[in-house]
Design a protein that fits this description.
Arc Repressor Mutant, subunit A, Tetracycline Repressor, domain 2, 2 domains
Length: 191
């Protein structure tokens, strides 16, 4: 005999949201630390939830890793929108580049975790790259509308430049060099 569960209440739905957010925060911290082999049970324990709760939200380790990465990109997007709301486009973009650099510098452990769960490029890596390019597009389009950015600038090209800077100067001890390179990019974008 099958007994149906009652529909979720607002309180249960709010608790489920909080649990998911806590799991994402704890997993991000664990993965950033380079503990790519940390067990899901450890993550659940540190989040203060049972392993069943973790699996209800994230049925596989890969699903958890990808959700953490997506959440982090969402936070970069929030930062981008806040900066654009409070600064001229090129100033906002240059400030965001520093946020992006700081974010990327903490992702080395996360990248190792992504690779370890997928034997190479994570499923959804193309989607994540596309989302980052869309964030860059926000700045480029805004700058072009304001007349501050050249009309021939392509967001995908700027994203590739940012990736290049981070691949050569993305370590935490290379902030100054990365900053100078970001300044060169901004100057090259100017109309």
């Amino acid at each position: 005999m099958h007994i149906e569960e009652p529909p979720p209440t607002r309180a249960r739905m709010a608790e489920a949201r909080r649990n998911r957010e806590t799991l994402l925060e704890v997993a991000a911290r664990v993965f950033r630390s380079g503990a790519s082999s940390a067990s899901l049970a450890t993550i659940a324990h540190e989040a203060g939830v049972g392993i069943g709760t973790l699996y209800r939200h994230f049925p596989t380790r890969e699903a958890l890793v990808e959700a953490v990465y997506r959440d982090q990109i969402d936070r970069l997007g929030e930062g981008a929108r806040e900066l654009l709301a409070g600064h001229p486009p090129t100033v906002a973009f240059r400030l965001w580049m520093d946020l992006f650099r700081d974010w990327a510098a903490t992702k080395h452990g996360m990248i190792d975790t992504l690779r370890s769960t997928t034997n190479g490029a994570p499923r959804g890596a193309g989607e994540m790259r596309a989302r980052l390019t869309e964030l860059v597009r926000m700045f480029v389009d805004s700058g072009q509308r304001a007349g501050d950015v050249r009309s021939d600038v392509e967001p995908a090209d700027v994203s590739a430049l940012l990736a290049g800077v981070l691949s050569t100067s993305g370590a935490p001890d290379q902030k100054d060099q990365a900053g100078r390179m970001f300044d060169v990019i901004i100057n090259g974008l100017r109309a």
